[in-house]
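Quick question, first post here. What does this chain look like in 3D?
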Amino acid sequence: MMIFKTFITGLCLLISTSAMAFPPQWLLPMLDTSQPLWTLDQAQESTELYDCGLEEEDREFCSGQVKYYDVDIEGRLWIIDGQVKEIDITTIDFSPYLYSELQLNLRKDAFNLYSATINGEEFNIPERLNKQTVDEVNRDFIRFTGKSALGTNRYFEWRPGSDFHTTTPERRVIFTSNGKQVTLRFYREPVISGK
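> Answer (accepted):
Ran it through. Tokens below.
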């Protein structure tokens, strides 16, 4: 009987961990370029989304509360030229844990911090890496973020490794935090062949 209970408990943990590991289907194309961008038809047919545009029908779609890994978020998708090319995910509330966890989630999805702006002061990582070692940049970044309270307006740009040094990244994420909530705006523009 004890072995059976242990097996069931382990199975439940495995199932809940697996469920946390998968983002909503509509977010996948922003994380993985092998996934095609969602279309207007897919957004309309999804049972997880509803049209929430106030000014124009079929322009914005919203989700209820869902999970991005283990963080509770709400989503907003923008239809541009018949496809979902921009998505916001926003936390329900704010805490230091959520602030850190969302950045950890971006790292899990192979995004790297590209630049950070706090109180109008920018910390550009590629520029710094041209002059400093990785350890020096990490040290200076910790000092940079530690100068201001966590509730200060923060604007961080994240890029996947493949787009890190390009001037026109195919994908990027803008992470904004104001001490009340955290929003991640995912952008994806398909690569046009011949460019």
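The beta strands are 49-51, 60-68, 71-80, 83-91, 111-118, 121-124, 154-160, 171-177, 182-188.
Helices lie at 2-21, 28-31, 40-45, 96-108, 125-129, 134-146.
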